[in-house]
Fold these 3 entries.
Entry 1:
Amino acid sequence: MKVYKIELLTKDDFYKFEKLDERFYFYDVMLVVANTNEIKIRDLERWLSKSEIKRSKSYVSEIAKINFVISRVIVNIVFKEILKTDIENLNFQRDSNNKPFIENPQGIKFNISHTDGCVIAGFSKREIGVDVEKINKRFSFQDILKECFVEKEINLIRNKHTLFFKYWTAKEAYLKWEGSGLLRNPKEIEILYVDESLIKIRDKNMKKAKTLKPIKLSKNYVGALCISEEI
């Protein structure tokens, strides 16, 4: 899996990102990672439609507002360049699994995930799922272990917060790739192996294991990426 990773840390990075080059089309995935702690969303309104600006003002939670704005800006920049059109003309739709998409001749699909301080957007010609989580050492996950993990996973996780979030993001990315999200029981997806370069999972509904890719982020975050195999 060849990944073209772009990091957005400041307003200026968005201007550079706006000039998408053709390297995008030579990779399996373009992965955009934004550090939302350092970006002022009022500087990004030029990449939002009028309705999106209005919607952003309706958010009560500042974190939710920031995540919405930055997610939309990233997607808008990519598709306005792909379609060579104005942002006002972009038409967000949803498929039968409620996954958002924008029709385009290149067949580029996208998936978004965000948490406090970070937004990730993945773009690919294949089906794609991404997930990111901030490692919260205060989060008590013991009550949900038996609901979301099989016994083998529980024994490995125990009280390890980082491992819990690695497993969680892997399951989320896979289920988002599949299109079911958390409508399926996460226990049906078993994590077989995790290291710094790959994740192996087994879906009880599939005959063979699936390989995912961990997303390398700062020490306080973990993420995972899942795409369809090349045909």
Note: The two ends are 13 Å apart (CA to CA).
Entry 2:
Amino acid sequence: MKVLAISGSPRPEGNTRLLLQTALQVLEAQGIATEYLSLHDKQVLPCRACLKCAEDKNRCAQEDDFMPIYEAMAAADGLIVGSPVYFGSATPNLMALLDRAGYVARQGDNPFHRKVGTPIVVARR
């Protein structure tokens, strides 16, 4: 079993990383393999609604960092997604990833069907 944690924070050493790493340590103590991925240095463009993913199942036509991340998400048995709160939502980079992953998955064989996942939200008081 493997769990992938994705940080949507633009800060590579911020609170989101701290909380995700803590969650991964708990899983590792239970013998579960983990992987941490940060979007801070990745380019994930928003969906263009070009519908190329409907023609080429499980693939997005845009040339950015999305497909390797999508493939890691699809290969994992569980997902943890972390983000600071930006104006009442997740960061734009994380939202672009989730939007495109959901759309590509729906056009193909949907590797996320019945996959376990959880969010971690980081906010100031």
Note: The chain has four helices and four strands.
Entry 3:
Amino acid sequence: MTFRRGSKAADIAVRPIPASQRMVLGIPLDINRMEIRDFDKLPGIGPALAQRIVLYRQWNGGLMTVDDLLKVEGIGERKYSVLKKFF
């Protein structure tokens, strides 16, 4: 994207912020764009649960709300209460 101000032009690159950086900055994560490796970085989520979340999302056409995490095997109320603050 190029912007002009008078005779000067400036190129500005706009890219999505990776999930790991969003976590550090306290920016809410996009639950439907995260990959297995992103979920794996969340507290209480290992590779197997991360894969179940992504598979659930694929089979159901996405997660409509963060509450849908409760439908994934291995996520109960306690784990959900920790995770929901990231979304």
Note: Residues 44 and 79 are 7 Å apart (CA to CA).
